[in-house]
Write a structure and sequence with these properties.
This protein is of the alpha/beta class and about 550 residues long. It has 15 helices and 25 strands. It has three domains: about 5-265, Rossmann fold; about 275-345 and about 475-520 and about 530-555, Glutamyl-tRNA Synthetase, domain 2, CATH 1.10.1160; about 350-460, Ribosomal Protein L25, Chain P (Beta Barrel), CATH 2.40.240.10. The protein has helices spanning about 5, 15-25, 45-60, 80-95, 110-120, 130-135, 155-165, 215-225, 240-250, 275-285, 300-305, 310-320, 330-345, 510-515, 555, and strands at about 35, 65-70, 100-105, 125, 175-180, 195-200, 210-215, 230-235, 260-265, 345, 350, 355-360, 365-370, 380-390, 390-395, 415, 420-430, 435-445, 460, 465, 470-480, 500-510, 520-525, 530, 540-545. The strands form six sheets. The chain has a seven-stranded mixed sheet with strand order 10-23-24-25-21-22-11. Strands 19-16-17-18-12-15-20 form a seven-stranded mixed sheet, with no helix packed on it. A four-stranded antiparallel sheet has the order 4-5-6-7. Helix 3 packs across helix 12. Bound molecules: adenosine-5'-triphosphate (ATP) and magnesium ion (MG).
Length: about 550
């Protein structure tokens, strides 16, 4: 066993990890260095989580390290807000880059020198064609491109023009620096790709120092090399860029030789994972912000109450493959539910309250009952809940004329109130408009704790809260942001689900929910998992439903499984 192998800690099994294992075993690599390279032009989404878990995950498993590197080469789209959000979200997801925080912009001077190196070697030239001309001469998948009339410029002229580009002598778009590779290549990325463009813009980190900026392709591989990245993991759309990545490695005097590997990006049903679309959702006011709980951003998922551990578990479950696929949203919810089922304490909350009066319960009296915080985890302890003459139950739990399979409350019917007593509905009180406003019930004092000494059974157990101390709360329920499993990323507005958020203004929750640790996830019995929203104030509680108790996606998508 080699030294490298002994440091391997329960690494998973997928083609990336297999490659790394083989590289270490053969001695081709002594260590594993990866990087997560976001462009700070938006918030991170769950697709990025896959990349983060993979990059930081393999580094940790194989005893290497992972850098956080901002791919900040496009100053017009980048912003400090995004930089802050990215760091917050990567940390929240459970990963730490330590001191290894880098920026492509840290390397601008070095990248510039390497561009001159290519010019001197006759492998790059300044092209004066317009954007439109560049596009028109690129060719197509079946036709070769056309060589630029500037392609044979001499080294001295190219150097002079490139230096003047840097000095700010030319306006945006007047000239570009291109690699001189092959306009006839079958791979469009090798048809003299643009390495530098003129952009008079303020950069968040370098300010006005630069008015030329490297392209993604020119910056990325070279940054990898500078940082000693061994395995540069990116998504499949970069597969066709790899020949260019390698061409640059071969033609520049670089300090190390990274290798690029591509894996399939995460796609999720009912979701669009594209920063462009997410930006438009925010700017267009279709959602309340980047952290709207309906957003697939890490900030949105966090606000919705999704634990970071559930996301890590989900990413592990879906694995890393080389073929694109779409993952069912139900898979993500499965991981969330599984996690919250273990960790969330149980509480009672009535979303749509219907008042009931227990006629044989003495007026002005009340009593405390004991309720489990977690029925499967005795260590979670119990709490006291108050029972009294006036209570609220869920409006949906009553029907005046119940169909055959409705076993809950109905006139004359006896049911159990969780942790309390059996009650029987005696009378239905209605408003002048015919709406049920109140139920008059009786309770059986002998059934305290929820069991009848004579062994008689009831067919339903309802959650409830006491009118005397229940706390009003706003509850927000979420449904898919898009109404189609495969929303169109182009014209996404047409596919938005108009009913993606339901706000219940007047729910009633048990008082423990007003004092509990605000960050803890809770299960509202029979309703799902909830968390307190930061919109809550001392006078008004707001809860988000993270996920319901059962998988409803099979129904939503119209498929049975
Ligand atoms: P988007 O496509 O959402 O606009 P991007 O790829 O432009 O995102 P970057 O900030 O460049 O966003 O991404 C940083 C890293 O995350 C890249 O290595 C990218 O390949 C990876 N990544 C982005 N989206 C996904 C996804 N859906 N699944 C897996 N990895 C992804
Ligand atoms: Mg990108």
């Amino acid at each position: 066993m080699t030294a490298a192998e002994t440091t391997v800690r329960d690494a998973g099994q997928d083609f990336i990890r297999d490659i790394i294992r083989a590289d270490l075993a053969s001695g081709r690599r002594k260590t594993v260095v990866t990087r997560f390279p976001p462009e700070p032009n938006g918030y991170l989404h769950i697709g990025h989580a896959k990349s983060i878990c993979l990059n930081f995950g393999v580094a940790e498993e194989f005893g290497g390290h992972c850098n956080l590197r901002y791919d900040d080469t496009n100053p017009t789209k980048e912003d400090q807000e995004y930089i802050d959000a990215i760091e917050r979200d990567v940390r929240w997801l459970g990963f730490d880059w330590g001191e290894r925080l880098y920026h492509a912009s840290d390397y601008f001077e070095q990248l510039y020198d390497w561009a001159e190196h290519l010019i001197r070697a006759g492998k790059a030239y300044v092209d004066d064609q317009t954007q439109d001309e560049l596009r028109a001469t690129r060719g197509t998948l079946t036709e070769a491109g056309t060589e630029s009339p500037y392609r044979e410029r001499g080294v001295e002229e190219n150097l002079d023009l490139f230096r003047r580009m840097r000095a700010g002598e030319f306006p945006n778009g007047a000239r570009v620096l291109r690699a001189r590779i092959n306009m006839g290549s079958g791979n469009i990325n090798l048809r003299d790709p643009v390495l530098y463009r003129i952009l008079h813009a303020e950069h968040p980190r370098t300010g006005r120092t630069w008015c030329i900026y490297p392209s993604y392709d020119f910056a990325h591989g070279q940054s990898d090399s500078i940082e000693g990245i061994t395995h540069s993991l990116c998504t499949l759309e970069f597969e066709d860029h790899r020949p260019l990545y390698d061409w640059l490695l071969e033609n520049l005097p670089l300090p190390s030789r990274p290798h690029q590997y591509e894996f399939a990006r995460l796609n999720l049903t009912y979701t669009v994972l594209s920063k462009r679309v997410l930006t438009e959702l925010v700017r267009g006011g279709h959602v309340s912000g980047w952290d709207d709980p309906r957003m697939p951003t890490l900030a949105g998922l966090r606000r919705r109450g999704v634990p970071a551990a559930a996301i890590r578990d989900f990413v592990k479950r879906i694995g890393v493959a080389k073929a694109n696929s779409v993952v069912d949203m139900a898979m993500l919810e499965f991981s969330i539910r599984e996690h919250l089922n273990k960790t969330a304490q149980r509480r009672m909350a009535v979303l749509r309250p219907l008042k009931i009066v227990i006629e044989n319960y003495p007026e002005g009296r009340s009593e405390e009952l004991e309720a489990f915080n977690h029925p499967e985890d005795p260590a979670a302890g119990t709490r006291r809940i108050r029972f009294g003459r006036e209570l609220f139950v869920e409006r949906d739990d009553f029907m005046e004329n119940p169909p055959k399979k409705f076993f809950r409350l109905a006139p004359g019917r006896e049911v159990r109130l969780r942790y309390a007593f059996f009650i029987t509905c005696r009378e239905v009180v209605k408003s002048a408009a015919g709406e049920v406003t109140e139920l008059r019930c009786t309770y059986d004092p002998a059934t305290k704790g929820g069991n009848a000494p004579d062994g008689r059974k009831v067919q339903a157990t309802l959650h409830w809260v006491a009118a005397a101390d229940a706390v009003p709360a706003e509850v927000r329920l979420y449904y898919p942001l898009f109404s189609r499993p495969d929303p169109n990323a182009g014209d996404f507005a047409a596919d938005l689900n108009p009913g993606s958020r339901e706000i219940i203004a007047e729910a009633r929750v048990e008082p423990a929910l007003a004092v509990d640790n605000a960050d803890d996830a809770v299960q509202f019995e029979r309703q799902g998992y909830f968390c307190r929203d930061p919109d809550s104030t001392p006078n008004r509680l707001v809860f988000n439903r993270t996920v319901g108790l059962r998988d409803t996606w099979a129904k939503v998508s119209g498929g049975g499984s």
